[in-house]
Amino acid sequence: MLPSYLALAESGELTRRAARLVRMLEACDICPKDCGVNRLRGEVGFCWSGAEAVVSAIVPHFGEEPCLTGTRGAGNIFFGNCNMRCAYCQNWQISQDWKGQRRNAVSVEVLAGAMLALQEQGCHNVNLVSPTHFVPQIVAALAVAVRRGLRLPLVYNTNAYDSVPVLRLLDGIVDIYLPDLKYSDNAMAKEYSVAGNYVEASRAALKEMYRQVGSELIVAEAGLARRGLIIRHLILPNGVAGSRECLRFIAEELSPAVSLSIMAQYYPTNKADRKDLISRKIRAREYAEVLDWLEEFGFENGWTQEFAAPDVGRPDFASAAPFTWEGGLAPAPLAIAPAGSPDR
C-alpha cells in the first residue's frame, strides 16, 4: 500500500497545498491560537516560531506503538517549540525553550533531507512529533522529498490542538493520525497547558481526522500500520485529564472501533512539582478505573501501557542520544544534509 501523498504529488496538488499553507503564515492561523502574526516576516506568536521549521532531533524511535515501531523503529522528527505549554511536558527541553531552539531552525530542503535520511536508515515511517505549528514547512518539505524518492507512510503525531481548515489541507497527505486527546475540561486545559479552548478545538480536530481515515487501522506486512487513526490518552493524577469523558466522546461521537493507546507513563517533570494535583505519578486505582471505562464503552482495539511503565525511553534532549531503550539501544540523532545536496 503506497502512501496517499504520492497521488497528490503526481497531480501537482501537493505543491499547490504547500503554497496555500505557506500563505497562511502571513497572518498565522495555523492552529487554534489564531495569533495573526506574519511569520514570513519574522513575527512570532504563542509558539515563538517564525518562517522556518525548528527540528530538535531526528532519530529512529523504539518507544511508539508496536505497529509504528516495528523492528527498525519509527522515523521520528521532533519539532521544537509548541502551541501549548503543558506544565508536565516530558519534552520541555525542546518545546518550551524557544531561545535555545533558534539554533535548530532548518530550511525546507534540510527538512526534506531528514525525511529521506530516515528512509535510508530503514525506519518504517516518518513520524512527525509536535508538527502542528510547522504544517506549511512540512508539506513544502514533503513535496521536495517525494521528488527525491520518499515512499514512507506519514504519521501526524499531535497534541490534537489543531485547526480543522489546516487538517482539511492534509487530507490525502497524512496516512496515520496519532493525536493525544489530553483533556475533557477547558479549565484543566487552561491551568495545565495554557489552552483554554482545548476541548472544542481537539474534538473538532479528531472528528476531521476520523472523517479522513475512519476507524479502521490498516495494518500490512509484519504488523506495520499503513493508514488510520490511533488516539492516545495519557492518564493524569487526580482525574485532571477527565479520562472518562474523553473516552465517552470517542466512543459516542467517533466510534468504539477506533484504536486507542492508553498511557500510564505519567511522571511529574518540567513544572509539575509546582502544581499540587499533578505533582505525583498516577495510582493503581486511577489506572484500573480507566481500564474499567474502556470496557464500559466497548473499546476493543489498541494498546494499554503497563501500570509500572518503565523509566526507559524518557527523553534527554541535552544528550547526544536523547533516548535509551531496553538492551542499551540508543541510536544517536542522524546528521542531515539537504535533499539533493552533493553529500547525500
Distance between the termini: 27 Å
* Overall pLDDT confidence: 93
Shape, per Cα inertia axes: globular
CATH level 1 class label? Alpha Beta
- Report the C-alpha radius of gyration, rounded: 19 Å
Range of strand content: 5-15%
What CATH architecture would you give?
A: Alpha-Beta Barrel
How would you characterize the largest beta sheet? 10 strands, mixed
Q: How does this structure look, described?
A:
This protein is an alpha/beta fold and 344 residues long. The chain has a single domain, classed as Aldolase class I (TIM Barrel, Alpha-Beta Barrel). Strands 1, 2, 3, 4, 5, 6, 7, 8, 9 and 10 form a 10-stranded mixed β-sheet that branches. The chain is globular, with a radius of gyration of 19 Å. About 2% of the residues have low confidence.
Notable features of this structure?
TIM Barrel, alpha/beta
Give the structure's gist in a few sentences.
This protein has 344 residues and is α/β, with parallel strands linked by helices. The chain is built from 12 helices and 10 strands. The chain has one domain: Aldolase class I (TIM Barrel, Alpha-Beta Barrel), CATH 3.20.20.
Write the layout of secondary structure elements.
Elements: H1 5-11, H2 13-24, E1 53-61, H3 66-69, E2 74-79, H4 92-95, H5 98-101, E3 105-106, H6 108-121, E4 126-129, H7 135-147, E5 154-158, H8 164-169, E6 176-179, H9 186-193, H10 198-213, E7 218-219, E8 225-234, H11 243-254, E9 259-263, H12 284-296, E10 302-304
Parallel strand pairs: 2-4, 4-5, 5-6, 6-8, 8-9, 9-10
Antiparallel strand pairs: 1-2, 1-3, 7-8
Helix pairs in contact: 2-7, 6-7
